[in-house]
Design brief:
With 127 residues, the protein is mostly helical. It is built from five helices and no strands. It is globular, with a radius of gyration of 14 Å.
Length: 127
Amino acid sequence: WDSDDEYNELIEAFCAYENFRKTQPSIAVLNLNNFNNLCFNKICSRLNIEKKSKEYGVNLNANIIHDNFPKANRYWVEINAKRNQKTEAHPYDKYGKIRIKITQNELDKLHEKEIETLEEICNFRNY
């Protein structure tokens, strides 16, 4: 990261994720998604991948990083969907019903997937 503001935001999101991971899964997912969004933007910047939109979710769903990071793309889509449907981000789910917050078990599964994405990113050598 060449921007202190961006880097500080990345660290803050990651630390908040870890701080809330075992006690408040909903808040943890909000922060994990922010962390992933920042990583996604940096990946696109470093690999000169053109974004389809200014919106993170739209770009994820367009699979623009899938060729280089298939796990990250797939799991980040899932994490972003959970953030949209099962956290304080929105009061309603995509069906217009009051959302049901993410459970600890659901977050634990996402945590494992996040570790896989970070391993995939750390092992990437095609730059």
